[in-house]
Fold this protein.
Amino acid sequence: MNEPRRVEHQQTDKGYVPVYTTAIVDQPAEYPADDHATWGTLYERQRALLVGRACDEFLQAQDAMGMAPDRIPRFDDLNEVLRATTGWTLVGVEGLLPELEFFDHLANRRFPVTWWIRRPDQIDYIAEPDLFHDLFGHVPLLMNPVFADYMEAYGKGGVKAHGIGPDALQHLTRLYWYTVEFGLINTPDGLRIYGAGIVSSKGESLYSLESDAPNRIGFDLERIMRTRYRIDTFQKTYFVIDSFEQLMNATAPDFTPIYARLDAQDAVPAGDVHVDDRVFHRGTGEGWADGGDV
Ligand code: HBI
Ligand code: FE
């Protein structure tokens, strides 16, 4: 089992968390059999759930990259196809990066992927992003040209927001959370998942589409940037985009006046629904995957 190296724990705004060095590291030449087995178990379990639940772009990209359950993919192999398709590459890191480093990578079409995978006893949940979350969850959609443009634009916006201050950063981090991590997309066949935090989670892959508990609200940039979120439970609200173009277009304007407007408004609790929200209801036929209640 490869353990993450050079880990220091520090008191940060996210609590007492491991803060890793920001260095780029090479993917280990070899992984122990246990690690490959963990990858395979998670890969097969998620793919079985995601056909009919994840958006086609995600599933097709994952296949096009040659990802498979038998072994942990090699970053170099993925980079060949990814670089040729959208100009993105993966870089190995120890784990969570300080925001500015993370944004700078995205702004340069580099996605930081944690080089180690969770232990077998963490297979159902791990509090921080590991190789499975990053590689299985985040990387495939970087093959989609429009989403790839959005991720670069997001990184550039993040570098700017970091220069403006912590409030702007908080607003922008919510946008990442409710799109890149926990986003849903509306399709002619119903609602589908594109968020990495959902596709890499067995429970949330089901809950996000089939439970009556959470709200599902149409994409609204400022509504999202005002809405709080929880990092330790399933989401109380999912935001639904109509297309990746909608996401890209929403990030085209300069956010400075938007941040000023948001600073003058209260944050919205994660579970709230407003009268002017475009709400997706079960049973209206608007975008429901079939499946049991969870
Ligand atoms: N670092 N390696 C890594 N991966 C992430 O997904 C990540 C990060 N640092 C910050 C961060 N995500 C979030 O704060 C984003 O919302 C910006
Ligand atoms: Fe993530």
Observations:
- Residues 129, 133, 138, 181, 196-197 surround fe (iii) ion (ligand 2) (CB under 6 Å).
- Residues 208 and 214 are 7 Å apart (CA to CA).
- Confidence is low (pLDDT under 50) at residues 283-294.
